[in-house]
Structure formats: C-alpha cells, structure tokens
Amino acid sequence: MGSLVNKHVLMGVTGGIAAYKSAELIRQLQKAGATVRVIMTPAAQEFITPLTLQALSGYPVHTALLDSAAEAAMGHIELARWADLILIAPASADFLARLCHGEGGDLLGAVCLASSCTIAVAPAMNQAMWANASTQKNVNNLNSRGIKIIGPGEGYQACGDVGAGRMEEPDLITDQVKALFTSNLLDGKKVVITAGPTREALDPVRYISNHSSGKMGYALAVAAVEAGAETILISGPVNLQAPERVTIMHVVSAQDLLDASLEAVVDADIFIAAAAVADYRPAHNAHQKIKKNDDNISLALTKNPDIVATIASLEKRPFTVGFAAETNDLENHARKKLNNKKLDLVIANDVSNQSIGFNSDDNQVTIITNDSTEKLPLMSKGTLAIHLIRHLASCVSK
Ligand code: CTP
Known about the structure:
- By secondary structure, the protein is an alpha/beta fold.
- It folds into two domains: 8-180, Flavin prenyltransferase-like (Rossmann fold, 3-Layer(aba) Sandwich), CATH 3.40.50; 190-396, CoaB-like (Rossmann fold).
- 33% of the residues lie in helices and 24% in strands.
- The protein contains 14 helices and 21 strands.
- Helix 13 (330-340) links the parallel strand 16 and strand 17 (345-350).
- Helix 1 runs parallel beside helix 2 (50-57), helix 1 packs across helix 9 and helix 5 (93-100) packs across helix 8 (133-144).
- It starts with 7 loop residues before the first strand and ends with a helix.
C-alpha cells in the first residue's frame, strides 16, 4: 500500500448528512501524509461549516466560483493544477449527475473540468436514490471515463432506510485513495533517473551551477516507485527530501553524474535524464582559493561529457529519455536533441516561461518521439510525472 506523502488532495464536499464524516476523512488523509485543501458546495455548508474544515485542513475553504477575492488568492484553475487527486466525499446524486454532464457552473464542477488529475468520488445518498436508473447510468458513465467510484457502503441510513448508499468509512476511503497512486505498470522493471543541477568547481569555495530545483526528477522517481519499479535517483545538490523506497545516489559534478549513471544503468529498463547538467566546467580547478589580484580575469571552460548521449550509445541500452529545456523554437530544438543524442523520447519544455520553469511546481511539456508529437496541458509536476511514467510504461511493454 502506498503512502500519501507530498500528495495534494483537493477534497470536494457536497450536500448530504455524510458531510460530517469529511472532517474525519481530512484527518485520515493528513495522517497518511497528504496536504488537503477543501471546496464546499453551498448545500454542503448546510450540514457542516467551512470554519470546521478550514481548522482541520489548515487552509481557507473554497466555496464560490465568482468570488474575486478568493479567485485572486488561489483561483479555480490554480486549484485544479495544484491537485494530484480530486476526491469528492460525500458525492451527492445531484453532483454525480452534474459531473457526468461536465457542468462547470459552480466552483467544484469547474475545477473538475479544468484538472488533468485523477478524480475519485465517494457517493452518499438514500438507497433508493442510489438504486435509481439515472444515478446508476451516471455512475457507469463516470466509471467508464476513469473516475474512481469508492463505495457506497451498505447498512442503516440516516433517513431510516437500509441498503446501499452510505458513504464509505474514512479509513477505507483513505486506503483506496492510497491505492490510486500505486500500480503494477512497471513491476519487475528498473528505472534510473537523474535530477537537479551539477556543480563544477572553480576552486575550493566557488562553483558554476544553474537554477534547477530537481522537482521534476524527484516527482518522476516517486511516480516510478509507485508504479512498482526498482528506482534509482541520481541527484545533484537540491533542497528536497529523498523519496521513500527510492535508492538515492548523491553527486556533485557532471563527471560524478556520469560515473554514477554508468554504474546504475546496468540492467536498467528506462533511463530518464532530468538533470540540468552544466555543459562546461572550469578547465582548471584551483587547489587554493583564487585571489582577487587582477582587475580582469578570464575563465577557460571545457566541455562536460553528455551523460544521456553516453547512456544512449551503450551497446545494451535502456529505453533512453531526455529533457529538452528550450527558450525558443521548442519542437525543432527538441527533435535535434532526439536525433543527435540518439534518444528514444524527448520531453520538451519551455524554460523561458517563469510559471513552468526550473523552480515552479507546474510544468507543461511536449512528448516527442521519432514519429509522434504530443502536447500535454499545464499541470503540477506530480501529476505530470504520473502521466509520463504511464506513457513510458506503455513504451517499454510494447
Ligand atoms: N544532458 C546530459 N548531459 C549533459 C547535458 C545534457 O545528460 N552534459 C541531458 C539533460 O539531462 C537533458 C538533455 O540532455 O535530458 C538535454 O539537455 P539540455 O540542457 O536541454 O541540452 P544540451 O544538450 O545541454 O544542449 P543546449 O544546452 O545546447 O540546448
């Protein structure tokens, strides 16, 4: 069973007596490691107050689509991108019908329409409403679109009826949510990922580096391990915690990264080069601190080895994936990298755009192979990593 560490769960609470259980559900999700933000529909607020869920979640509860102050703080599109999972619990019959028809007239509906992440619903309603042919048709439709239906449970209902329609218990919902982040798509496979910047020493106290945060590579490592892969993450210096169940190799320079990659890649099925490797290093690494004697000094630089190209040229090579960080003419430059480095796939992103650049939590990429180009929408790096790992799993299982 996976954990929810570092996962963003956007919880939608709709109108129904089971709304009181959403308070406990927030606690359970948090205990499993998730950060939870809450959207409440107007009907939900008749059953439980936003203040209760705000106190429990630690974040303001979002209630309205057309509220300029709330939209300015964190708008519906940002909320949609923030989420790694949208969990609607309880989900009323009315909300299921609206979700089924793609209605975006309220905040929760609009966020569901705008998000690329997985959506799960925990229905809660009277047993006759659940059994009704319209509800069943809507649920089947949602199911066929990949929306996860959790429950409902059976038993005594608040209205006095007995039957199916009770919202599942919070601990059971939490277990099913954890399971949504795990799969066996990469069972038995070995994935090696490089991440973060490299540092190229000038002298004992100075170095050349770049602004890479490592977030994309780390998110890919989490997604790979959650898909069942033996995962090795080779990381340059970053301020991120090592993901659970991932073997981490810490490196500093491009040469260290190359050595670690050649060691790790033996028997690997997939190699993903997400590191922002310094292209050049100082030709001389001074043993003593360079003193400020001259008015002008010049720096001689030497080209670093290209790690991903080296791996792609191995006789027994894994499926090799590179990133192409570009500021202009994205597809053209990315295709050149695909061909010159002999890669199987390139993930191209525009680093001139601050909202998807090195330090951002979001990214928007285009997946490029020899015979295809697929532009993905803007999404969080966590959600994107899940999409990319699914895509790579389908490539290596062909
Ligand atoms: N890469 C690598 N080793 C290098 C340089 C880059 O493995 N010495 C990998 C990166 O991890 C990335 C891909 O190559 O997956 C492309 O990196 P990028 O910086 O976009 O391109 P460069 O090859 O450095 O070319 P340029 O800087 O001229 O765009």
